[in-house]
Amino acid sequence: MPDVSKTDDASRLGLGAQISVLFAIGGLLVSILLSAATLVLTRQQLLETRGSAAAAMAVSNATRLSNQLTPESSIEDLPTIVDSLTRIGGSQRIIRMGDDWLVAPELDRADLPTPLVTRLGDRRPGQMLAMVRGEPRFVVGIPLTAFDADYYAISDLSEVQQTLDNLRFILLGTGAIAVTLAALLGSWASNRMLRPLRRVREAAAAIAGGRLDTRLGAQADPDLDRLSDSFNEMAHALESRIQRDARFASDVSHELRSPLTTLMAGVGVLESRREELSPRSMIALDL
To answer: What does the pLDDT look like over 184-212, one tens digit per residue?
Structure first.
C-alpha cells in the first residue's frame, strides 16, 4: 500500500522554496500598493495642474471677451474677437450668445456636459471632468453676466492620459523587478536560516553511518545553541546506550563461551571412548 503521507510531502514545496515564495508575494503586494498609490496621486496632481491652468485661462479669456462685447454685438462679431483670445494647445471654445452658438471646429453644443450647461443657465460658473466624444476633457463654463452669453473652454486631456499610460508601463516593469529581487532576497534568507538545520541533518546522517562521536559546534544564535545542546545530549545518550549494549553482549558471550567449551571437551572424551559405552549411552551421544 503506498505511503500517502510521503506522496503528499513530496508534492509540497520545501521550506526554503516556501520562504522564497512568501518573499515574492510580499514584494508583489507592496509593488501593487505603491503602484496604485503612485498612479492615483500622479493622476490627481496632473488633473489639478491641468484643470487650474485651464480654469485660469478660461477666466482670463471670458473677461477679455466680456470687455470687448457691446450691447450691439452679435454672433457674427465673435469670430474676430475669439481669434484675439489666448489659447493653449488642445483647447477649444464654444460661446453662446442669446439663442445663437459659436461652436468649435471639432465640437458642438451637444457635446457640452448637461449638468454644466444647466449650472450656467442659473448664471453660476462651473468646471468638470467629462468624457466628450469618447475622450477625457476638462470643461470650464463661465457666464458673461453683463450679457446673455456663456463662455465654454474645453481642454484636451489626451497628454495627461498618455503620461499615465507611460507611468503604468514603468510601474509594471518596476514591480516585476521588485518581485524578482524579493524572491532572490527570500532565497538568500532561507539559505541563511536553514544552514543550521543542514548541519543537524549532516550530523544525524553521520551518526546513522556509524560515527557516533559526531557532535554539533556552538551556534551564533542562542535558540540554535539550545537545539545544538539538545542534539549533542541525544547523540551522547545514544552513543552511551550502544556502548553499554556492546559491553553487555560481550559479557554474555564470554559467560556462554566457558560452559560450551567444557561441554564440547566432554563430548570429545566420550567420542574417544565410544566403544566402551552402552547402546543407550551411544544413542544419547549421537543426539
So the answer is: 888 888 787 777 777 777 777 877 777 76
Closest CA to 154 of 205, 90, 199: 90
Burial of 95 (0-12, 13-18, 19+ CB in 10 A): buried
- Estimate to the nearest angstrom the gap between the alpha carbon of 217 and the chain centroid: 37
User: Which stretches of the chain drop beneath a pLDDT of 50?
Assistant: 1-2, 4-7, 9-11
Give the contacts of 59 (CB within 8 A, at least 6 positions apart): 142
Residue 51 phi, psi (nearest 5): -65, -40
Residue that the C-alpha cell 514584494 belongs to = 27
Q: Are 138 and 47 in contact (CB under 8 A)?
A: yes
CA 133 and chain centroid, separation: 39
**Angle in degrees, 0-180, between the axes of helices 279-286 and 222-272, rounded to the nearest 10:** 150
Contact 28, 179 (CB under 8 A): yes
Burial 30-50 (b: 16+ CB within 10 A, else e): ebeeebeeeeeeeeeebbeeb
Q: Which residues of 152-188 are buried (b: 16+ CB within 10 A; e: fewer)?
A: bbbbbbeebeeeeeebeeebeeebeebbeebbebbbe
What phi and psi, each to the nearest 5 degrees, are found at residue 71? -60, -25
Indicate the length of the chain as a whole number: 287
Q: Using alpha carbons, select from 26, 24, 40 the residue that is nearest to residue 171.
A: 40
Cβ proximity of 187 and 17 under 8 Å: no
pLDDT tens-place string over residues 144-156: 988 889 999 998 8
